[in-house]
């Protein structure tokens, strides 16, 4: 009986540690995605704990940064510690190209394999996103609500592909791309009707027109990439002036 209680206690501790580590990774990921931790900035462990108000030892922080390194958000430098991955047009173009390729593959597979429940979930995700009105005076909480709904919408399109490795890769690429969008388009007005673009992708998807749906998704990703590049150029020019 004592052994059973001990095993249950150890299991509870492991579950708690796993949950804590996941929460820490989410907190750091969000700080990088939003620019709270600026691109290219050095991540010194003690300063990082103070900045983010973290009451943890260095070990779980190192582990979390290593996990984010595997996701492509943190650069791990030999003997020099950690740094937020810098931004560049070359990196953004690579991310966008990979998104078009792999999300197109996942979407095509989802259209082939997805059942009615998946189709309904895609429509529901689009409706949820459409109903969150984006304005210049949104609070950070409201903005994050839109961001989560936007991420869920894009990933919902892909989840019926029944290819877990592909979905994981698409998740990572989407986060890498979203960091650029958050950083460089947050304070710039949209020059297009994004809701209509989402709606067109959904319509083609639910009509099981894979060629059109994948083409519209590619255009959607590429338009955002072009807008970010324009803003990136302007900011670089401003810094050089």
Q: What's the topology here?
A:
Blueprint lengths: L1 H33 L7 E2 L1 H8 L5 H13 L3 E4 L3 E4 L4 H25 L2 H15 L9 H17 L7 H22 L8 H13 L3 H31 L1
Helix pairs in contact: 1-3, 4-7, 4-9, 5-6, 5-8, 7-9, 8-9
Mind explaining what this structure looks like?
- It is a single chain.
- By secondary structure, the chain is mainly α.
- The chain folds into 2 domains: about 1-85, Winged helix-like DNA-binding domain superfamily/Winged helix DNA-binding domain (Arc Repressor Mutant, subunit A, Orthogonal Bundle), CATH 1.10.10; about 90-240, GntR ligand-binding domain-like (Four Helix Bundle (Hemerythrin (Met), subunit A)).
- Helices cover about 75% and strands about 5% of the residues.
- The chain contains 9 helices and 3 strands; from the N terminus they run αβααββαααααα.
- The protein has a 3-stranded antiparallel β-sheet with strand order 1-3-2.
- A hairpin with a 3-residue loop joins β2 (about 75) and β3.
- α5 (about 115-130) packs antiparallel against α6 (about 140-155) and α5 runs antiparallel to α8.
- It is globular and about 55 Å long.
- Residues about 5-15 have low confidence and may be disordered.
What does the radius of gyration come to?
Answer: 20 Å
CATH topology label of the largest domain: Four Helix Bundle (Hemerythrin (Met), subunit A)
Which class best fits the helix and strand makeup? mainly alpha
Strand content: under 5%
Q: What fraction, in percent, of the residue positions are helical?
A: over 70%
Low-confidence stretches: 6-17
Strand order of the largest sheet: 1-3-2
* Oligomeric organization of the protein chains: single chain
What is the number of beta strands? 3
Rounded mean pLDDT is: 86
How far apart, in Å, are the first and last alpha carbons? Answer: 73 Å
The 3D shape can be described as globular
The second-level CATH architecture of the largest domain is Up-down Bundle
Question: Order of helices and strands, N to C?
Answer: HEHHEEHHHHHH
Q: In CATH's first tier, which class of the largest domain applies?
A: Mainly Alpha
Number of domains: 2
Q: What about the largest sheet?
A: 3 strands, antiparallel
Number of helices: 9
The CATH superfamily of the largest domain is known as GntR ligand-binding domain-like
């Amino acid at each position: 009986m004592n052994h059973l209680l001990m095993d249950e206690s150890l299991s509870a501790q492991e579950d708690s540690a796993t949950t804590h580590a996941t929460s820490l990774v989410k907190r750091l990921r969000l700080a990088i995605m939003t620019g709270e931790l600026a691109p290219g900035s050095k991540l010194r462990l003690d300063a990082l704990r103070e900045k983010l108000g973290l009451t943890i030892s260095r070990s779980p922080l190192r582990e979390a940064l290593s996990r984010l390194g595997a996701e492509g958000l943190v650069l791990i430098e030999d003997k020099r510690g950690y740094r937020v991955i810098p931004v560049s047009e070359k990196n953004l173009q690579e991310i966008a190209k990979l998104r078009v390729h792999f999300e197109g593959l996942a979407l095509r597979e989802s259209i082939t394999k997805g059942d009615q429940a998946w189709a309904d979930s895609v429509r529901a995700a689009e409706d949820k996103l459409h109903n969150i009105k984006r304005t210049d005076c949104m609070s950070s909480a409201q903005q994050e609500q839109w961001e989560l709904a936007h991420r869920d919408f894009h990933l919902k399109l892909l989840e019926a592909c029944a290819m877990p490795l592909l979905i994981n890769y698409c998740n990572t690429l989407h986060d890498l791309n979203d960091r650029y969008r958050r950083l460089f388009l947050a304070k710039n007005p949209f020059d297009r009707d994004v809701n209509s673009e989402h709606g067109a992708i959904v319509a083609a998807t639910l009509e099981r027109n894979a060629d059109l749906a994948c083409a519209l998704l590619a255009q959607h990703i590429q338009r955002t990439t072009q807008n970010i590049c324009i803003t990136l150029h302007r900011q670089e020019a401003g810094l050089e002036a």
